[in-house]
What we know:
Chains A, B: Belongs to the CbbQ/NirQ/NorQ/GpvN family. The complex is a heterotetramer, with two copies of chain A and two copies of chain C. Chain A is an alpha/beta fold.
Amino acid sequence: MALQSYRIEREPYYRPTGDEIALFEAAHADRMPVMLKGPTGCGKTRFIEHMAWRLGRPLVTVACNEDLTASDLVGRHLLETQGTVWQDGPLTLAVRHGALCYLDEIVEARADTTVVIHPLTDERRALPLDKRNELVAAHPDFQLVVAYNPGYQSVAKDLKESTKQRFAALEFGYPAAGIEADIVAHESGIEPALARRVVAVGERSRNLRGRGLEEGASTRMLIHAGRLIARGVAPEAACRMAVVLPLTDDPDLRDALAAAVGACF
Amino acid sequence: MALQSYRIEREPYYRPTGDEIALFEAAHADRMPVMLKGPTGCGKTRFIEHMAWRLGRPLVTVACNEDLTASDLVGRHLLETQGTVWQDGPLTLAVRHGALCYLDEIVEARADTTVVIHPLTDERRALPLDKRNELVAAHPDFQLVVAYNPGYQSVAKDLKESTKQRFAALEFGYPAAGIEADIVAHESGIEPALARRVVAVGERSRNLRGRGLEEGASTRMLIHAGRLIARGVAPEAACRMAVVLPLTDDPDLRDALAAAVGACF
Amino acid sequence: MESGVALADAERRLKAYVAALWGIDPPLRPLPQDGDPAAMRPRFDDALVRLPAVWPGMDLYRAALAHVGAHRMFSRPWPARGLKPLLILVVSLFEDARVEHLAMRRLPGLRRLWAPFHRTEPSASLMAADLMERMARALFDPAYRDGNAWVDKGQRLFFERPDRWDDPDFSLMLGGTLAGDLGKMRVQINARGHRVEPPYRDDNGGLWLHDTPPEPPRDVDDPLDAVRPDRIEAEQSDRRDGPPRSLPRPAPFAVADAAAMQPVARHPEWDHRIGLHRPDFVRVVECVPERRPMSDAPDDRRLTSRVHALIRHAVVARPERLRRQREGDRLDLDACIAAAVARCQGHAPDMQVYQRVRRRGRDLSALLLLDASQSTNDPAGDGTVLDLERRSADLLAGALDAAGDRFALAGFRSDGREAVQWLPVKRFGDAYDEAARGRLAGLDGRWSTRMGAAIRHAGSLLAGQPTLRRLLLLVTDGEPSDIDCPDPRHLVEDARKAVQELAGRGIDVVCVALGGDPGTHHHIFGRRNVLAVDRVERLPGLLPAIYAKLTG
Amino acid sequence: MESGVALADAERRLKAYVAALWGIDPPLRPLPQDGDPAAMRPRFDDALVRLPAVWPGMDLYRAALAHVGAHRMFSRPWPARGLKPLLILVVSLFEDARVEHLAMRRLPGLRRLWAPFHRTEPSASLMAADLMERMARALFDPAYRDGNAWVDKGQRLFFERPDRWDDPDFSLMLGGTLAGDLGKMRVQINARGHRVEPPYRDDNGGLWLHDTPPEPPRDVDDPLDAVRPDRIEAEQSDRRDGPPRSLPRPAPFAVADAAAMQPVARHPEWDHRIGLHRPDFVRVVECVPERRPMSDAPDDRRLTSRVHALIRHAVVARPERLRRQREGDRLDLDACIAAAVARCQGHAPDMQVYQRVRRRGRDLSALLLLDASQSTNDPAGDGTVLDLERRSADLLAGALDAAGDRFALAGFRSDGREAVQWLPVKRFGDAYDEAARGRLAGLDGRWSTRMGAAIRHAGSLLAGQPTLRRLLLLVTDGEPSDIDCPDPRHLVEDARKAVQELAGRGIDVVCVALGGDPGTHHHIFGRRNVLAVDRVERLPGLLPAIYAKLTG
C-alpha cells in the first residue's frame, strides 16, 4: 500500500497532560482539521505520532519553512526523458490514500502557500490540483493537522484569519513540573529526583522567555540534558551543553542562565 | 464529459439569510459576473456550492494565492513524448465547457493575474490564450464568481477599481442568530436549544472584533463546536477547542472569552 | 495587606469580558479609596464604570461587570426627584433582579457567576438592611424560601409574572407596593448608610436621574458622586407621598382625528452608550393628513415648466452603451477585430460590429420626506418653513409624476417614542392627484423630530421597492430631538445609525437642510449627503434641481 | 571601590538572572550615593529594587537579588505601626532566614551562593549588632554552633519546625519571642543606625508597611524617573521656569536652541460648526530636536535582528518572476518547451530558458510621526510612553534604512495655534545616521496635541514624494487637544477632516493608538485605519510588525 512506510509500528511514549487524547479523538471522528498550538519542543509532534499510532493511521509530516511553495505540498510536473510526469506532493499523497497529514510549524510557511489547504478544511474535503486539472476528493480517513507556535511577538508571524478559523485547536504548554519530570526520567533514564532538578532548570530558562530569550528550554532539551547526565556528565555541565548553549549566544543571558542553573543543583 | 468530477451530486445544505438565492439566479440568468463579499467562514463557499448544485452546473474552484500565475489559471504547454501539448488551466476549462468558475480569496492573487479575467467579464465573454493564439469564446453556461473578505487591514490588499466594477456583488454577513442556530443544529446534529447557546458563544466573540480580535467566530467554527458536543465533549470544552483557542493567543482575551463562554451555558 | 486582585492588573481582561458579554466598551476606573474597601460598591453612569481598585477575586469583578452590563442593556434611568429614599432602594432591588433575569435568559451561565454571592439565609431579623438582602436573594433564586411575609410577597409577585420582566415599569410597580408595605412595618432604615448587597451589585446610582447636580462635588473628576445614595437624604425635605409616578410621559396625542391614526410599525432605536439597538423601542403611527385646499399662492408657471423640463431631462439623461449591434452610430472596435480575425481564418464573420447609445429611464424609487415638526411653523419668505416645504414638494411631485419617476411623499413628526407620526401624502403605487395634493396641503407642523425612527420607517418602505436605486430625500429645518430624550446626542447618534442601516441596505439618504447645525447634519448623513439650503425661500427652486442632480 | 563591578555594566545580566530565578522583572536602580558604600544595603519595594551602584562582585549582586526575589516570592509585608524597632529587626531576621530556606528547597544551589557571606564566628560579644549577625548565620546554617544562649535558642526554635516555614506568622512568633528575650538582656541597640548583615541582605524596608513612608523620598511619586541623569536638568529648568512641570503650560519655548526654530508653514483648520476651513489659521514651527546620546538602555539584539528580518522580508516580499533569463535558479518550463519545439522545427533555439525570482522594493514613502506632547511622559514599561515611542521608532527606522525603504521621521506637539511644533528627526532624503538617532533621543514630551495641523503638515511633505503609495503612520497616546480649544470636538473634527484631505490626495493615514478613546480614533481615522496597541510596552515589537503588515 502507498503509505506503508508512513505507518507507526510501535507506540510512541506520550504522557497526557489533560484530556487532549479524548478531544483529539472526538475531532478525528469527524475528520475535523485540528491545530496544535504550543511552544517548540513541548510535545506536539510526539502527541500526533502517538495519536496516529493509536488511531492506526499513517502519518505524513511536512516541516514547513519559508521556501515551501504550494507545489512542494501539492506536487509538480517533473521533466523526464520521456516527457513531463506528475508527482504527488506529500499533502496530495495523504489526501489520496487517507493519512493524517501533519504540517509542522505552519506559520513558517508563507501565508499564500497555506491557502492550498483551504478546500480540504471545509465541506468540500477536496484538493484541486490546478496544474493537472484534477480535483482529488479526500480519502475518508484523511485528516489535516497543523502545528504552530504562538510564541512571543506573535503579530509578526501569525496565521491568516481565514486559515485559523478552519481549525479546532488544542493547546500544549510545557507539562506541569511533575509530569515533565516523569517524562524526562522515562526518556533519559535518570532518577526522578534528579529529573526534577533538570526540570527546574527548564523552568528557569522559561522565565526568560520574552525577556531576552525567544523560547525557554523545550522538554526535548531537558531530555537531552538527562541523557548526558545518565552518561556520567555532571548535571551543571550537562545542562550547560544541552540547555544554556543551544538557547542563546547572548553573553549576558548566558551568564544569567548559567548562574540560574547553578542555583538548581 | 470534461467536468464530470466537478459536478456536485448531493445538495449542499444551505440556509438562505435573505433573497441571495433569487438574486444569484437572476445574475446567473444573465451570466453576470458575481462577487461574494463577507468575513471568513460566513458561508460564501457553501453558498456557491449550493448554487452550482441548484443550477446543475459544474463548479471549478481556485483558491487564490500570491504564487498563482496567469498560466496557473489559463493553462500551459506541457512537453510530452510526441511534442508539446497544451493543457487548459481551471479557468479555461470552466470557460470552454460551461462551469461556474469560483476564485476564492481573490485579493490574494497578484494584480497581473487577476487581469486575465477582464475579457470574461464584459461583453466579449472570451478568454484570450496568448500563448496559443486562441480566443476561447465562453460556453453559454460559463459564469465567473469571485469571493473576497473586505475586512483585511492591509491598505494594499484590495481589488483594483477596474476589476471591482466588473462584478455584481452579494454581501454575506454572519446569519441572524435564529438562522445560525438552525445551521449549527443541522450541520452538527445537536439540539436546537443547545445550538442557540453555541451561537450565543459566537456572538460573544464577535463583540470582541476590533477590540482585540481581528475576527469573531465564524459559523464554521460554531459547527465545529457543535460536532464536538455531539461527540460527547462538554459544551464549554468544545467551545474552548473550536472557538476560543483558534481565535486568539492573547492570554487576556482568552481569559475573557473563556469566561464569556461560561456565561452562555 | 491586600491579597486580592488589582483592577489595574485585571483591567484588560475585564474590559474584554464586558465587551464580549454585552458589546459595550465602558472605561473602567478605580473608585476613590476613601473608606472601608469591603463596603465599596461599583458605580456606573453612561460614561464609565467605577470598581474598587482591589477586590477579593476575578469572579467578583466579573459578576459586577455582568450586572452593570445588564443594567446598561435593560434599564433606563428614572428621574429621582420627589421619590423617597426607601422607595428608590426597593425599586432598585426589583430592577436589579429584573435585569439579571433578563440577562440570564440570554446567558444562563451568569447564574453560576452570581449565585455564590447570594449567601444570606432566612432569619428572624427585621432590620431593613437584612430584609433587603434576603429579598435580593429571594428575587434571584426562586427556590429560596425565606418565611418572612414581606420577602415572600415580593418573591411571589415577581416570579408570578415573568412575562412582565421586559417592562421596566414592572420594577417601579412592585417596588412601589413593597416599599409601601415596608413603610407600614415601621422598620428603621438608614438610607444614607445603606449598603447594597451582595457586593457585586452597583450602588444604584446609575439607575436614577437627579435634576439638580449635587452640591459642589469634592471630586471634580467623578461624575458619579452626583448620584450616590447620600443625595437621597438631601432630598428628603421634599416630602411628597404616594405611589411613584410613572415616567415623564406627557399625555399622548392631542390630535384631532384619532380615528385616522393607527400603529403601523415598531422600530428599534440605537443606544450609542451601550452600542446596541433597543428592540421595538419606537412605535410609528400612521396618520393620514386631512385634506385641505391647496394654498392659494399662485403658481409660478415659469418655475413649474422649468422644473418639469429639468426632471424630464434628468430622468432620461443616463446613456447606456449597447455593443455588437447590427446597426449603430459607431463601430465597436472589439467586434471589428473579432470579425477581421474570423475572416482571416476563413470563417464567416459576425457582422454585428456597431455600437450605439441608448437612453433609458432610471431604475429608481424616491421617497420625499418632509419634517412636519413644530419648528416648521417658523416664518420664512411669505409664509412658514412648512409652506415652503409644501410648495417645493408639490412642484417636485408634479414634475416627477409627469416624467413617470417612481416616488412617494410623506411627512413625519414625533411626540415621544410611542408616537412617531408618519403622515403619508402619496404612496408609491398611487398617482399624484388632487387628493394627494390636498393631503399635502393638510400637513401641519407639530411636536418634535425623532429623525431616526422616521428614517427607519422610510427605509422599510423603500426596501420593498423593486428598483435598483432607492433614494430617501429628507427635508428638515432642524436636528433630532424629542420630548423624552434629555440627552441631545442620543437621537443624533440614533439617526446616524439609521442612515447607516439604510446605506447597508443600498438605500441612499440625502438631507436637504434648511437650518440646524451643519456639523450635526454632517455627522448624521455624511458630509456628501447634506445639501444646506441657506435661504429657505429658495427651496422651491432648488429642491427639484437637487433631485435632478442626485439622480441624473 | 574601583575594583568592583558597576551596576550599570551588570544590569542586563542581573535582570536576566532574577527573571530566570523568580520570574520577576523588577527595574534595578542604583542607590543614591550619599554615605559609606560599604554600609549600603539593597532596598526593594513592590515597584523596584535598588542596589549599590558599585559593589565588590557579581556574586554579591546575585546573592542580593536571589534574596530579594525570595522575599517577593514568600514574604508579605506587615504593617509596622506601633511595633518597636527592636521587634521589627528581630522579626526581619527570622523572615530573612525563613524565605531563604524556602528558596533553597526549590533551588538548592542557592546555598552555595549565600553561604560564603555568612562568615561571622562564635564570640563573646554581647553587642546587639554582633548577636544579630551571629543569629543570621545560625538561622542560615543548622550546623553552626554559636554557644550564646539567645542565638542557640533562636536556632533551635527555628530548625525544630521546618514544617512551619511556609507560614509568615512563624517569623512573627519567633521574632516576638526572641526580641522579648533580647530586651530583657538589656543589650544596647541602635535601631536607627542598625546595619543588616551579611551585606547581600536588604535593609528590611520592603518587609514593612509604614503608614507614612519613613523617609519621604522624592522618588515615591515617580519611581522610575527619580534617578535618571536627565532628571537633574529637568529640575533645573523647572526651577528656572517657576511652576512645577505638572502644570500644562510652562512658558513657551523654554527649549535650549531657540535659533533652530523657524516658522515653516501655515495651515488651515476646519471648523465643523460652520463647515468651513479657517484659512492659514495654524502656524507650524520647525524645531530641530537637540541631539542627545541615544538612551543607555542596551539594545535587545534579538529583537533588533527580528525586526530587520521582518522589514526586509516585507520590503522584498513581493516576488517578481523574471522569465526567459539567460541564467537563473530554475528552468522556465515554457521557454524550454519553446526551445525544444524550435529545435524540432530545425530553428536555432533561444537559450534564455531560465527563470529567476527577483524581490523588488515597494513603491512607497512612509512618514512616521510621533506624538511628543506632555502626556507621553507618562510612565510605561521601564520608562515613559515617549521612551517606548522612541525605541520603537529607532528599531523601525534602523530596519527601514537597512532595507532601503523611503521614509521620514518626525515628532509633533503644539502650544496653541501659533506654535505647532514640527520636530524633524530624519527627512526623506537623509540617511538614518547617528545624527538622526541623536535627534530622536532629543525628542522630549511637552504641551499639547493639535493633531490636524500635524497631519496636514505631514501631508504636505508626503505629497511631494515621487512614489505611488504614500503612508502616514501616526503614533499617539491620546486625542487631539490644545490649550486654546475649550471644545474638545473641534480638534477632533479638524483632525478627521485633515485625514480626509490626505485621503483625497492619495495618502493613507494610519494611527497607532497607545491610549485615548477608541471611538474618537475611529471617528478621526476610520475604523480600519486605527490599530490600538493596548499594552504600550509591546509597541517596540509591534510597530515594525504593523508597518510590515500595512505595506507588505
